[in-house]
Amino acid sequence: MAVLREPTFLILAALAVRPLHGYGVIQEVAALSDDRVVLQAGTLYAALERLVAEGLVEPDREELVDGRQRRYYRLSEDGVGALNEDLVRQRRNANAAAAQLRRRAASDFLPGADPAPGMAFGATA
After folding, report:
1. Among the listed residues 28, 19, 59, the one whose alpha carbon sits nearest the alpha carbon of residue 9
2. CB-CB contact of 55 with 47 (8 Å)
3. What distance in Å separates the CA atoms of residue 39 and residue 62, rounded to the nearest whole number?
4. Are 65 and 52 in contact (CB under 8 A)?
C-alpha cells in the first residue's frame, strides 16, 4: 500500500468510528488535526470519489435534509487495513526519530563524544 498523505489519513480516521456526511468529515478532520487541516468541500468530495474508486471508502446511505440530498460515507475493510498499515508506519518513524533524539541528548553529555561529521560542538545545521 502506498503511503497516505495527511489529509487522506485524516479522512480515513474520521470515518473509522461511524459513517459521516461530507460536512461531518470536514468537522472531524479539523478536530483530529487540532484545526491544522481544514478541508474545502471541493477538495473533500474529490478525495472521497478517489477513495471510493480505490475501495477504501464506501457510500453508506443518503438522506434528504432541508431539501438537500446528504450522502454518508463509511470506511471499508480495505480502508481499515490501509489506515492501520499507515498508522504502524508512522509509529515506526516516530519511534525511530525519538530514539535518534535520545541518542543526541545522551551524546551531548558524554565526555569525548564526537560531533556529527563536519560539525563542531555547539554548531547548528
Report:
1. 28
2. no
3. 21
4. no
Tell me the residue type at 108. Answer: D
DSSP symbol at 18:
S
pTM of the full structure: 0.81
pLDDT at position 2: 75
- Reported as a single tens digit per residue, the pLDDT across 29-42 is 999 999 999 999 99
**What is the end-to-end Cα distance of the chain in Å, rounded?**
34
Q: Find the Cα–Cα–Cα–Cα dihedral 62, 66, 67, 69, rounded to 10°.
A: -20
Q: Are strands 20-21 and 57-65 parallel, antiparallel or unpaired?
A: unpaired
C-alpha cell at 122: 555547539
Q: Are 40 and 25 in contact (CB under 8 A)?
A: no
What CA–CA distance (Å, rounded) separates 101 from 108? 11
Phi and psi torsions of 122, nearest 5°: 85, -15
Distance (Å, whole) CA 14 – CA 79 = 12
User: What gap in Å lies between CA 65 and CA 123, rounded to an integer?
Assistant: 61
